[in-house]
Specification:
Length: about 120
């Protein structure tokens, strides 16, 4: 399996990840109520940026993108306001939700273009 097939394989599984994240969001909503909006927006943004960096790495644009992708969760935790453990769960789930959304966008845009050509 080459590097580009890894991205395609993950993009194919992204809808399942999205459904799982929605279920976890529902569970967290029952347990804790509404999250801090800034944390959730940071999580979605950093998850999507991490996806972009990993896709760039898998498309052989440079090894430094892999390091940047690994730094995104660390930066997210540093910038988030975590008052308790459930707030951390919101942030982690939001990160993977953003990751899955970016993979679905990749699947709809990039893979569709490569099939047409």
């Amino acid at each position: 399996m080459n590097n580009q097939e890894i991205g395609k394989s993950l993009a194919g599984k992204a809808p399942w990840g999205l459904l799982f994240n929605v279920a976890v969001f529902a569970l967290l909503g029952v347990i804790d109520g509404a999250p801090l909006l800034a944390n959730l927006l940071f999580a979605l943004l950093f998850g999507a940026i991490s996806t972009v960096f990993l896709l760039l790495y898998w498309h052989e644009k440079g090894g430094s993108f892999f390091i940047f992708a690994l730094l995104m969760p660390l930066l997210l935790i540093m910038l988030s306001e975590l008052s308790n453990f459930v707030a951390l769960a919101w942030v982690i789930n939001g990160f993977f939700f953003g990751f899955a959304v970016a993979l679905i966008i990749y699947r709809l845009v990039y893979i569709k273009e490569s099939v047409e050509n």
